[in-house]
Amino acid sequence: MTAKKIIGFIHLWLGLISGIVVVIVSITGCIMVFEKEIRNVTEPFQYVQTGKLLLPPSKIKAIVEEKFKGKNVGTITYNGPGRSAVVNYMGMKMGSMATNIYINPYNGQILKVKVMKDDFFRIVLQGHYYLWLPKEIGKIIVPAAVLMFFFILISGLILWWPKSKKQASLSFSIRWKAKWKKLNYDLHNVLGFYVMLILLCISTTGLVMGYKWFGKSFYWLTSGGHQLKTAKKPVSKKPFVTDSLTNNADLVWAECLKRKPFTDQSAFTFYFPDKKDAAYMVFYNPDRDTHYLRETWYFDQYTLKPLQGKGSGFEAGLYANAGVADKLKRMNYDIHTGGLFGLWSKIMAFIASLISATLPLTGFYVWWGKRKKKPQRKNVRTALPVQ
Q1: How many separate domains does the chain show?
Q2: Residue 196's domain spans which residues?
Q3: 131 Rama sector, left if φ>0, alpha if ψ -120 to 50, beta otherwise
């Protein structure tokens, strides 16, 4: 068996094993690409009339806790002028399992209470992460399928590689007028080639999030042999005499607004301390549409002294001061979702994910067509009788 036949065998069976999962993950990924844009149009409670002064964290915290007895506010996200703030409870898992309380940050009016586990996009995201299976099962199946898909893309490039100039001319174009079998073959080979680099980026960033060993290995490779440092939050040291924590929260908020302006594109996420030795934590993002530029600030909850986090990625300081590996770690999510370069990169990610969903289907049909193909009859010449 030749090397190319071995690669073809691996390509085939990895595709058959991971095909259904790749289809589901690709389609759900397509839907998630434009989540923010769709929400901006379909969720009017995200917008408010701009007022003169923003309510400080202590006031918003008091309003929400008065309205929802027994619930302690954990985070408040200020989303820029003219947009509602989002409040989450203390100790609640963020993202898919959160309850988002949308509130007018100028007058304290509660606009919407949204349980995110019932939200359409969070249901889609659960399919993307876990195939709507129990988390313990889904988090094993999905990364494994993505890892197979990673090798499918590489082996597919080897199989696609033309042997001659004549074959090369056919490898870059689709024969739209050909019969269905040939057309299907071109849709699989040619479209797969054109989106291969984008899909490699998406699958690689997905593996960084799906496997710790892959993320550490990728960081080691891109950093020139350095180990990925575990993020560590600083702790607060309790003095003998303290001021009111409510007042301290507002003082921290005032300091944040001094550091960075509150603009149309910026967002501040304010974390209240959840333990006696925890610090105030604030995420500042100058661009809500991406994540990689985010800064993380810490303040001692008693003395308000600025503290420094440790580790790689967002905890390692400013993006401008980060090394190549830390910058790539910061960019990982934005590369995966296509949001790194704005609308155009999102469109490219959407198209690539859509084509990705078709590759297992067209590939299966290519295999099935060869399997069902009847062997050609050999031309047998009848011997003439000897005179």
Answers
A1: 1
A2: 3-35+139-228+339-371
A3: left
